[in-house]
Amino acid sequence: MSPRRVVVTGLGATTPVGGDVTATWVALTSGRSGVRALDVDWAEELPVRIAAPVAVEPAPLLEPVEVRRLDRVQQLALVAAREAWSDAGAPAVDPNGSRWRCPPAAAVSAASCARTRYCAARAGSAFRR
After folding, report:
1. 50 by DSSP, 3-state: which?
2. Global pTM exceeds 0.70
3. What band does 105 get if pLDDT is binned at 50, 70 and 90?
4. How big is the CA angle at 106 (ends 56 and 27), to the nearest 5 degrees?
């Protein structure tokens, strides 16, 4: 017997205009932008200090062990994935089990982030997290 394929349909979002799908949708339909000036210490030496940071920090929504083990991109992906899981009706499969996977885009983003930090450090940049 071959394994059954399952597709879970649910929406999840962690964006610059909202910490969940509902807030994001309301902001987008009202024309609100998530772009703003960065006012954090590590951005002082950057040539451009505007960005679209996420609206909600993921750490308070996660277990302490998840915060320690996951990088920021993975934390954001996990928060959005959990919302999608809930939106799909929380199917009776353990989301913490071995079948739970991170979306490929999050892995690519994390690799890109690591490369950017490596290149900045190699060039002697003040870019820090």
Report:
1. strand
2. no
3. low
4. 35
